[in-house]
Amino acid sequence: MTAPKDDRPPTVRQLRLVVEADDYEAAVVFFRDVLGLPEQAAYSGDDDARVVILEAGRATLELANPAQKRMIDEVEVGRQVAPRLRVAFEVDDSRAVTERLVAAGATEVAPPTVTPWHSLNARLDAPAGLHVTVFQELRTPEGRATLDGFGTGS
Questions:
Q1: What does the pLDDT read at residue 1?
Q2: Of 41, 37, 39, whose CA–CA distance to 57 is shortest?
């Protein structure tokens, strides 16, 4: 099923993933200072209520059916490990970022692995209970579009 074509402008301006972090300070250090997500804003309120909004570049929503989720786990990790939600960050150097994140307290679930979709992906368990992928694209979108199994739904 493909989406109907129309000329309406997109109505969504931003995707924001909101995560409750029991150890707020450790999560801020990990994602802002170690992973390098720039701080856009921070707010505080009564009863020590705090939030920080970190920029993560361009946001996308990746929807996968159960078979695709199982296949991604199998390719990247070799077994089923991801919960229903996984956060993926595109980086310039998966190996270096993985080493930095592990040194900062993340648990490496799987080392950087070249995937069939031509990216270098590593899996980690990070602060705030997040299961994350860091990935480095090894081909341009144009180069990938020429391969079997790649394209758009439209």
A1: 56
A2: 37
Beta strands in 1-150 (DSSP E): 39-44, 50-54, 87-90, 107-114, 119-126, 130-137
Predicted TM-score (pTM) of the model is: 0.83
Backbone angles phi and psi of 28, in degrees to 5: -60, -45
Q: Coil, helix or strand for 9?
A: coil
DSSP secondary structure, 52-64, as one string: EEE--SS------
Contact of 54 with 32, CB cutoff 8 Å: yes
Residues in the chain with pLDDT < 50? none
pLDDT digits (tens, 9 = 90+) for 19-53: 999 999 999 999 999 999 999 999 999 999 999 99
* Share of the chain residues as helix, strand and coil, in percent rounded to the nearest 5: 30, 25, 45
Domains and CATH numbers, the chain: 24-145 (3.10.180.10)
- If one counts every other C-beta atom within 10 angstroms of the C-beta of residue 40, the result is 10
